[in-house]
């Protein structure tokens, strides 16, 4: 496995595990956006 494989699997594996607060939903956040943002900001080894 390489970094691209992990990133590709992370989105479908993590999106359904997030439960957003009312505030986050009111601000237009989605689990999909949150996981994408984390994947972009976390540096690959």
Descriptors:
45 residues, mainly alpha, 64% helix, elongated
List the helices and strands and how they pair.
Elements: H1 3-15, H2 22-26, H3 31-41
Helix pairs in contact: 1-3
A few lines on this structure:
With 45 residues, the chain is an all-alpha fold.
Characterize the biggest β-sheet.
none
The average pLDDT value, as a whole number, equals 91
The gross shape turns out to be elongated
Number of domains: 1
Tell me what the structure shows.
- Helix content is 64%, strand content 0%.
- The longest helix is centred in the N-terminal third of the chain and has 13 residues, at 3-15.
- The protein has helices at residues 3-15, 22-26, 31-41.
- It has one domain (3-41).
- The chain has three helices and no strands.
- The radius of gyration is 12 Å and the shape is elongated.
- It has 45 residues and is mostly helical.
């Amino acid at each position: 496995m390489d970094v691209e494989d992990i990133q590709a699997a992370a989105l479908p594996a993590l999106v359904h595990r997030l439960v957003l607060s009312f505030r986050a939903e009111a601000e237009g956040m989605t689990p999909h956006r949150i996981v994408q943002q984390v994947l972009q900001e976390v540096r690959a080894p």
